[in-house]
């Protein structure tokens, strides 16, 4: 059974060519869709006249993050966005359990039930209401066989999107801030990257460095990821998901004002922390949230970063895997800290190290955190707590 050729309006010749090559690749021998003369007036047809748009339900439609529009931005010069989502399906510098190459797919799948136009009581708004043009830019087709090439591909892709003109919908707070920090003095889009193992941050920091110079990092993770390379490691072996921040510091990509949040790993030796400090990080441990509380955790991160341009990187293992046995932060705690960081001068963000999980729980949690990124990247300051039946005096401890 051959599908009826769909009438598709092809407005730009560049897009038409890209479309033609995809069509030949994926539908060999099937006749191309025809052009304008075949477009019918759907307004009079039974479906549209009665029910309107053919919208996607939570469990239907092609897979993009939260049903956002999807474009292969790397090849589509007409794509416009202020905040683009970009998948980096790379996991070949992983020391233990691989599989994070399926992260972008799993996070998009986990996002189907949520929409960026839907608000929450916690944010008091929705990412779509805040004005930035949001677009799912697809995935970087990363080599799974050559790590040096893969790192270069990720840097080239990130640089490409970072240099695209913005759509122009960002708020007054962010228009001047990303422009003020950019070496060329113009506003650049911000990219939310869906990993991928944590090494993807090295090519991202290399690309950011060309636009902004060195940046601070807020790093949510169970692990330091600043470990020095073992003796005898080859140049390529030195770059892993546990060492990439040390390499980034060697390359001058970091300011000396970064901070970890949620560290709970076992150290090779306790002087790992000294080395970590030399890479430019302070440490907030998992237990600090119990000893000092969420508000102090937020305050310390904000004090450390100040007005620096800052990149946020979140390893999903900062969240307790099912609350046992590893005693990490709950998703709710991470979400509260993210809300408290709104208004910092973010130049980009990622979520990494999402692997296979039972019943998709990690993908759903990661998608929920990405929704928070999209609001956090746009607001000038943290939202006030939901008040409901409570009064200000109820907030005092
Ligand atoms: Mn990590």
TrEMBL record:
Keywords: Hydrolase, Metal-binding, Signal. PANTHER family: ARGINASE/AGMATINASE, GUANIDINO ACID HYDROLASE, MITOCHONDRIAL. Belongs to the arginase family. Pfam families: Arginase (PF00491). CDD domains: Agmatinase_PAH. Residues 1-18 form the signal peptide. It comes from Favolaschia claudopus. This is Arginase deacetylase.
